[in-house]
Design brief:
Blueprint lengths: L1 E5 L13 E5 L4 H10 L4 E4 L3 H8 L7 E7 L2 E2 L14 H4 L3 E5 L3 H8 L4 E5 L4 H11 L3 E6 L8 H22 L10 H13 L3 H7 L1 H8 L3 H7 L9 E5 L2 E4 L1
Parallel strand pairs: 1-8, 2-7, 2-8, 3-6, 4-6
Antiparallel strand pairs: 3-10, 4-5, 9-10
């Protein structure tokens, strides 16, 4: 198994796909996806375009759907929800399909949707992601951060580092191989270094991150606290068909 970290979807190799792609958008799309599936959503269907989301979700009975739209951190007019994991309670999302479009995370998923296996990761479900990788042992793994409108995001890279750090510890313990055997590019090393520096202060890192500051201006303190939790949800969102994620 070789791990490759890419800070944004634009940095992934244009003419290649991995055996397993992991989309990461800690603030907040992949955290919200994990929370929705953990709370009993039937599936989460992702869109880069709000217009397409509206067209596709129109074919569903209103009682069986929820529309979640976010741009610039704020809820899109005409949608039921924004992009907060705190809105994904069992009574609200249970048995429904969540149709979601966000500024960054859904664009990341669109870039990697043709990989053999596509899963989503956040800090909240880090352990579930690591367990999946240890069980499946895909040959090549891309950890792709969503970033912010094409730019590097601290929170996505620290999540990639959290996954790579835990995986390397467990993989080497089980296989006896050197942890360097997992490293596919320099970005993996830098992501692990970022995580080990901040592992006990993840909420503090969120407050340093530009997107974290943006959410604080939108009174998103509780969202930051939720998204900074590690291993709090035992759920693995996995792509069942292009753009549709279900609980593994």
């Amino acid at each position: 198994m070789k791990l490759f970290v890419f800070h944004t979807p634009e940095l992934t190799p244009a003419n290649d796909v991995p055996d397993c792609a992991i989309a990461i958008d800690v603030l907040r799309a992949t955290t919200t996806i994990a929370a929705a599936l953990d709370a009993g959503a039937e599936a989460v269907q992702v869109f880069s375009s709000i217009d397409e989301l509206m067209q596709v979700s129109d074919r569903w009975e209103p009682a069986k759907r929820l529309r979640a739209g976010e741009r610039g951190g704020a809820k899109v007019d005409g949608c039921d929800l924004g992009n907060s994991p705190l809105d994904c309670t069992p009574d609200r999302v249970g048995g429904r399909r969540l149709f979601i479009s966000t500024t960054n995370g859904t664009r990341c998923l669109e870039r990697v949707r043709s990989a053999s296996a596509v899963i989503t990761a956040a800090l909240v479900n880090r352990a579930a992601v690591v367990d999946y990788l240890l069980n499946q042992r895909p040959e090549t793994v891309w950890l792709v951060g969503s970033g912010w409108e094409g730019s590097f995001s601290l929170e996505d890279t620290v999540c990639a580092g959290a996954i790579a750090h835990s995986l390397s510890e467990q993989f080497t313990r089980e296989s006896g191989q050197h942890p360097d055997d997992l490293i596919g590019n320099d970005e993996v090393v830098s992501a692990i270094a970022l995580y080990t520096q901040w592992r006990d202060r993840l909420l503090g890192l969120m407050h340093q991150a530009s997107h974290g500051k943006r959410l604080l201006r939108l009174e998103g303190q509780d969202d930051l606290k939720y998204c900074a939790q590690i291993d709090s949800l035992n759920v693995l969102p996995i792509q069942r068909e292009p753009g549709v994620l279900v609980k593994h």
